[in-house]
Amino acid sequence: MRVQRRAPIFAAPGPMCSRGRERGSVMTMKLYSWDLSPYSARVRMQIYAKGLTDIAIEQPPTYGTPKFYKDHPIGRIPLLEIDGEAIPESAVIAEYLEEIYPEPSLLGATSRENAHIRTLARIGDIYLMNNTFMLAVQTRVLAAQTPVTTGNEGIVALLGGQLASNTKALDRMIGRDGFACLGRVTLADCALVPALFFLENVLPGTGLADPIAANANVAAYWAAIQKDEYAARILVELHRGLEERRELIRSGAIEKIRAARDAAREAAEQT
Questions:
Q1: Which of 115, 125, 137, 157 lies most in the core, judged by the most C-beta atoms within 10 Å?
Q2: To 5 degrees, how large is the angle CA 6–CA 15–CA 17?
């Protein structure tokens, strides 16, 4: 069945690149991404696992400028650009790609399997990554050479406790065969791999213990999934992005970038 084109529903005009199909309609598609962005990594792993070669992956050319924040009100990546329009939010992008590229599927064969996949993905996305990012903000672990917790130790302890509890919950739900569930790569793995990377590589910088080692099933999963070719590719990119970030911190350039970004966002909001 051929889908009739509708009027644009997403803003953000931009360059067109690769070609995809939405039930017969030819589209140009591009994913705007950064190596270190765990939410972008989630979508990139999905693209690699599905063998999609017609989606270009690039850094957003206008990021950090008023135009970016004017065109994309949420102001975050990843963004999937389609014919000059942009879809935000990694979970939304992931579901969209499953709809237009149903094979190979990273979902299950039944509604209950899909519910389990989405639950595990949500644990990675919300219960782990969100708390890790809030910890990074509180301690400036991704912004300063020496993390600082003075004055907010209570918040740091609270977030650390939530991460420990959430990892323990994941330990009871994670697969025992090297994958999150179903014995193969699913959208759950795409969300959990970057989340666990941040737990292992960023959390220790906040002064808190990595909760992976304290949970045997999560630890076993983490050791096994890193050998998967798609996860391994994502981890190379995440490590590269982390080293680039640390170099920006060492050089002091990160503060200039942050100041310019904040000024650009404020300028966009005033127009």
A1: 125
A2: 85
Q: What span, in angstroms and rounded, lies between the C-alpha atoms of 33 and 180?
A: 24
Measured CA to CA in angstroms, residue 36 lies from 59, 103, 175, 181 at distances of 11, 28, 26, 25
Q: For 107, phi and psi rounded to 5 degrees? A: -105, -175
Among 100, 126, 153, give the residue marking a domain's end.
100
Sign of CA dihedral 44, 50, 53, 55: negative
> Residue 116: inside a domain, yes or no?
yes
Domain of 72, in residue numbers: 18-100
Kindly report the pTM of this predicted structure: 0.87
- Count how many residues are written for the chain: 271
Indicate whether 249 belongs to any domain.
Answer: no
CATH of the domain at 68: 3.40.30.10
